[in-house]
Please model this.
Amino acid sequence: MKPQRDLSHLNFILFGGDYNPEQWPESIWPEDAQLMQEAGVNMVSLAIFSWAKLEPREGEFDFGWLDRIMNLLHAHGIKVDLATATAAPPPWMAKNYPDSLPMTKDGVTLYPGARQQYCPHSVAYKTLAARLVAKVAERYAQHPALAMWHINNEYGCHVSESFTPAGTNAFRAWLQAKYETMDRLNHAWGTAFWSQQYGDWSEIHPPRSAPTFVNPTQQLDWKRFSSDAILALMKMEVEILRRITPSVPVVTNFMGFFKPLDYWAWAQEEDLVSDDNYPDPLDPQAHIGSAMRYDLMRSLRYGQPWLLMEQTPAAVNWRNRNAMKKPDQMRLWSYQALARGANGVMFFQWRAAKAGAEKFHGAMVPHAGKDTRVFREIAQLGSELKRLDPLVRTTNHADVAIVFDWDNWWALELDSHPSIDMSARNLMPYYAALYQHGVTCDFVPSTVSADKLREYKLVVVPNLYLTKDGVGPVFEQYVAAGGHMVIGAFSGISNADDHIWLGGYPAPFRALLGIRIEEFEALGAGQKQQLITDDEESFACDTWRDAIQLEGARVLARMGEEEHAEAPAITQNTFGKGSAVYVGTCPDTQALTWLLARMCAEAGVVAPLAAPPGVEVTVRSGDGRRFVFVLNQTAQNVEVKLAEPMRDALTGLEHAGVVTLAGYGVAVLM
Amino acid sequence: MKPQRDLSHLNFILFGGDYNPEQWPESIWPEDAQLMQEAGVNMVSLAIFSWAKLEPREGEFDFGWLDRIMNLLHAHGIKVDLATATAAPPPWMAKNYPDSLPMTKDGVTLYPGARQQYCPHSVAYKTLAARLVAKVAERYAQHPALAMWHINNEYGCHVSESFTPAGTNAFRAWLQAKYETMDRLNHAWGTAFWSQQYGDWSEIHPPRSAPTFVNPTQQLDWKRFSSDAILALMKMEVEILRRITPSVPVVTNFMGFFKPLDYWAWAQEEDLVSDDNYPDPLDPQAHIGSAMRYDLMRSLRYGQPWLLMEQTPAAVNWRNRNAMKKPDQMRLWSYQALARGANGVMFFQWRAAKAGAEKFHGAMVPHAGKDTRVFREIAQLGSELKRLDPLVRTTNHADVAIVFDWDNWWALELDSHPSIDMSARNLMPYYAALYQHGVTCDFVPSTVSADKLREYKLVVVPNLYLTKDGVGPVFEQYVAAGGHMVIGAFSGISNADDHIWLGGYPAPFRALLGIRIEEFEALGAGQKQQLITDDEESFACDTWRDAIQLEGARVLARMGEEEHAEAPAITQNTFGKGSAVYVGTCPDTQALTWLLARMCAEAGVVAPLAAPPGVEVTVRSGDGRRFVFVLNQTAQNVEVKLAEPMRDALTGLEHAGVVTLAGYGVAVLM
Amino acid sequence: MKPQRDLSHLNFILFGGDYNPEQWPESIWPEDAQLMQEAGVNMVSLAIFSWAKLEPREGEFDFGWLDRIMNLLHAHGIKVDLATATAAPPPWMAKNYPDSLPMTKDGVTLYPGARQQYCPHSVAYKTLAARLVAKVAERYAQHPALAMWHINNEYGCHVSESFTPAGTNAFRAWLQAKYETMDRLNHAWGTAFWSQQYGDWSEIHPPRSAPTFVNPTQQLDWKRFSSDAILALMKMEVEILRRITPSVPVVTNFMGFFKPLDYWAWAQEEDLVSDDNYPDPLDPQAHIGSAMRYDLMRSLRYGQPWLLMEQTPAAVNWRNRNAMKKPDQMRLWSYQALARGANGVMFFQWRAAKAGAEKFHGAMVPHAGKDTRVFREIAQLGSELKRLDPLVRTTNHADVAIVFDWDNWWALELDSHPSIDMSARNLMPYYAALYQHGVTCDFVPSTVSADKLREYKLVVVPNLYLTKDGVGPVFEQYVAAGGHMVIGAFSGISNADDHIWLGGYPAPFRALLGIRIEEFEALGAGQKQQLITDDEESFACDTWRDAIQLEGARVLARMGEEEHAEAPAITQNTFGKGSAVYVGTCPDTQALTWLLARMCAEAGVVAPLAAPPGVEVTVRSGDGRRFVFVLNQTAQNVEVKLAEPMRDALTGLEHAGVVTLAGYGVAVLM
Model:
């Protein structure tokens, strides 16, 4: 991991949001600044979609308005996360450089009128973006309001791949750099199959629309290439910014579990991870999803602080049906980010737009103005957060690691597989089971070192279809030394080129798991089967069934259907000083809760507090302090028992044996 | 409204259909003419798809066959609604002018082989169509059979927008004419958002496929432009026809609530509104839908008579599953058109085709010939209608107006809104509730004058998301003077440019309604909530919920769910001498029936007759006469009580205190 | 039917599979050959996707590896079904000849990366394929392992039509050859409708994306043309092969009921029919579907033996969810092919691939190697089949014929019809009803001769929407002479040009059936109606209802719904010495089982054995032998009573009055 820039000037909890003054007459700006102070705002993200305003015609720049707003914000004590403004090119770019527009796999050009209408491989885009970044950086390098750089915006959000001729050429060059010879590519892609052998780099295409399934390794390399190519755009900006403002941290905003971009690689190129999170209030599991992505965000730079860069104060506008956060839910969910390592809570956006495609997106200042429930909740939160500044020097510590990486995600969800239900969504039940137990998790990539693994008491691998060379031995080392590991179905199947590991599945983990699998099969859509544990509890599973042969492992649960004749479904193998569990089906959350309770007990993993259902508890510590977050994710009042008397950092109140929380209530205990 | 041509020659109920003699050998024509007489046919629509027959090669015209059929029809006393034949260009047009083909937003060209394969912006199409119209008009200007002109056919039915380069250029020109300066366009479109600011007209595109939501005002202007551009095609034909045959009325056939074309504007350019209506017999609400569209058709030229230009005698063939009209249902539904102001009942088509894409479409003469149930019902209807000629000088008079216009429809259903369920379909429950009460409605556009509004006792505004400048004051004037108004949810939100009216929703109607709304939210798909009225009745609502603050209004109904704490759902405000109701959710038809019963009572709106459920009653009057239509929309016998003895215009029978109707039966009482 | 090549060298049951040695290092080949011997493999299909390996650069050929593997196989006594390798062009073809790529109706080009990426109309493809075929044929003409030629692979599987300019031109030429004059085409296509009259061949297009329904006859001719054009590719290869190796039989692999290709025409051009069949183990009716397609395969060359060319030993990988065949099910389903006339049972593929889009497809040698359930079952089957070689000189004899052809399938499923549910899927309930009765069927095309028909006691016509000239008289002749016939709804509607047969449906069969239909109608989606038989049994029907007038027929079943007033639903007419039944709705399988039981009884059709439900029994006989196949398609044990003692050809055991079969068990009795 590249070293992080000094962040010591960010020694407070960031609070604010995206600010788009260019959408409003300047006469409103002073009111904005004054309202921000009222709301406790200490930072705004500025100029994210301002390219057309900054460069209204190619090569003609206008920074006057931005100077004025920067000065105004500074005068009000508000720091700026200043954007490089490269996320949405002005319409003139498409006119002057028609080839800069992106193209779908069907050959359909995507036109201006929305945003992000650039092909990531376009030379015109790169040249023009680089010039803009340099202009912005040079102009504001010394501005006292500048606190960090906001690079582009949600890279890849709408256009994460582009099939233009430029894209085709870039793909060929990337392949040539990777494989060097045609033979190596032909071997890696398995082109002996279906008469696909290439004689020359120029014969290769991206996975365009084709008669049927495109070569899987070609598809996989295309995903790797596309993530790399977009990352190269960010690196281009980072280099410029670091040259001109070496000490200003750079950040781009992530989108949680966003499939197209390998955030493990991305996070290494910036100084601070940030996330845009829009949980759906209609989803009763939304808060568990948020917890999971926050744990990922914290893990991407191995426990360093991160930012919640965007959330909505109210509803969003891009779902089919957009529900409001209920009263207090915005506050609760803001604390949830802090509870899992965030050092800031920011919003999209400051003031609700009058026009455009996001005018119905919630904002800190709604259409109805400041005399609103939403603004009052914002101001309350802003005022509370000032009491938590010491948090910034703490972080979360986890005893459990979950293995997750993008290469596997991409490979797992390729077509022509045994079941389309065997996808990354199977991660969620594992996480939810650990969440029920009150256990905070870190994420690690599958190529994690043995040293890093040893920091954890339990390692959970919900799926590792694509298992690279060397991963098996590291996992064995970890378990042999006393670690505990749980591996989910359809793991250890193929290598980095997506070639099957032959000789009985899961070949790289057979010794570790003490099993051999000859066959697996998909269950029908919605088809449930019965799972019976060794203590005769009965659960349901679906999606998948392995035919497991025991080679030393013992059975933790077996299939309940008569036709499967009590075949093993979940097994455990003692390996060295530790043990490894294999889950040869997709158990439901209840079954996984049973399994992971047992594994946590074996591994000595304990929750920080015995909280009632629906109450989320995490701990941040460091710098001699310890904060316990208690978050009531239910609409009802709850009582949480404390092992010792604690003080609430928000209210200053002392709690003796118990703390009582209203529905959606929060306590931060010290 | 432009003045109507003299229609005094159409002083009888029109009865007939589309006639396509070119599909048959001439030897069959005499049989056709004779069967038409047998069926009581007095008018046919001719030559609608005859361009290729009239101009088999570019510039070579052949009118001989049309001369012969015109003469034959005249000799049999049958009038002709003669088409300009421009609806489907011959295949040679695509060959000679490939750019004349339409193009989708994905850039896909639509090819010949079906019909309507022309881009509305194609110069070639316009030039060739204009020449054809002139040729036809000149040739038949003096023909005694000619009764009116049938312009094109179902404009926009399959191709209502086209993204060719010609379309792009035309759009830019239309925008330039509308906005004059780039600044005005940039302001109207809100291009400060997402870096969309334009520097030159040539940078603008239609809303092609794009990375994400296209600018809403750009989309809205594109819809306005597309309706205008197709209307320009009709106006081009009208000008030619009026030049050559100044006294012959012109008509084009509409398709009811057809979203792409703003029929308020269209109706002003023709002499007579006509409608093609194909209710689905499998839809138990089909007759309510027909009533609603017939009320719209009558309203488009403010109560002037209109024609039912097309319906099927039996089944259609273009749905996935095409049910037959039941015995007597064709007759019943024909009278329904007359009952709501039509002066004619016509069919597609005369004789069922042997070949082509409509060979399974019902016809007056089916494949099985004249010895069929269908032909017998046609002949019976033709014979009956002769008794109703005095109807042509009467019309319907309504006490209730429904506000409806296309600009709002287009804007309401744009993407990036709070809920995709908040659409024009929410009109139906309001109409259905009034229909249950036996109340006939007019439609008016939202830009209706205060004078016009004062003609109504009650004005219902199911939705007016897009509320133009000046509408609020007119509504206030109407209510202040004693009118009653009901306004549905998500009204008064944006102005003509689709910019939000700030300051609490619905800003233009806040004073009128005595409320303020800070927030609204979408309910989940299929999610029902409870509505409790002030007389403690309980109903269901869905889709939407406003958080209403009372500023003078009283509560007619409140939300029943505990979490909403009895929040107001329907409110009423006394304003001047009248009152205004706001409906802050989407109540089901039962709830709206409850509400509109109360509002009709308050406004003094009464049904013409107290009819049992499923019996539709309307009144046409004028020229000293009054006809009461009693339509039994059920399959069962019904008895309808009369206030006074009346005579049945069809049977001549006198009815004392009651009239009995068989299932699907009809009475026209005087 | 063209004469069949001599097949006397294939005097044993073929057993083997697709073999792709080019995917593996040569060091593995000897193990392959040895394992094949172990498994009883006597034939493999070779080089199906080897074009890129055989011609790595245009015009440079490399046969060395193929020589070696041919020799190796020969040395192990394994015959070769050698492919012409034209199914998947190498990537260089798309580079050197970009126009050779196929194009969709939307104009989207399909790129390399998968397989079959050639436009069937491409001159480049044809030229290059022809050269390759000649090279392969010349090189291996005398090779002792060569047993037959495998032409291309699953023609049309992914690309069955292509809308390139070359395709457009070829279509025009095909039309010109068919119609000779524009007038004839205009008449056949009914172009008087919708102004579609053509003045020149160059005005005609394939049915590209269009504004609405494309002319039905144009669509139908396009399907005929596309089948012909792809067949021309096969004929091109056949001609080359017959020139070079006149005595080697040629075969291409079919895909059962594959809509794009008219296999009646195709089967005449090859020496042996073969089928690739992949029943879905999750479908409880899968075995009935297999029986039906096997009966079709046997019928395509009028009872001559055929091959099961491909099936999977385990699961496939191209469905969304791919279930495994249960233990013994692969064996059972292999015998099912033999039971219905196959002389061979082969698999895709020999050894499971490590890479590529089919790596999860089941194989005879799985990823886990030979110590697997799958390989053991393969080897058991291979060993058993050696005992059945005398089968090759027998075939099945059927008393029942089902009329089925592609022209009707294409026409029936065109758009703009009364109901999308009226499709070829309605064949299945008729077949299933006969299957329940243990009756084996032949298939015949609708243009079957009267002589051929007379071989059958009962002829079933599930649907014959498109009824060509002359078919009515042949059917009348058959019934008049004492035959029995059942005709399903929506038959006798249109002629070969898809023009309606006028005068009351079904005009060509009205005299035969003694009925007249004025109207038909679609029922709603999922709408069931009641059917009451003349013996007062009650069944369900759906999809369709004819309004039948009796003109001599009697009623076998009537509609049960009150609104239909007991209208006739199924009728029977005595015609000469026989009788003809009309089914004016879509009865469910129970109702058809009732009907066909009665018709079998009347016609004297009896099952070979009275077997319990779920047990399939067929008979193959010839050359003085008779084999009775008894297949237990259930998971439970069953007892089957025998009329006489019989010997099991597999076990050699004698069975007296009864044979007992385990779940999925098989007996072949003599």
Chain C has 18 helices and 27 strands. Residues 216-244 of chain C form the longest helix (29 residues). Chain C has a mean pLDDT of 97.
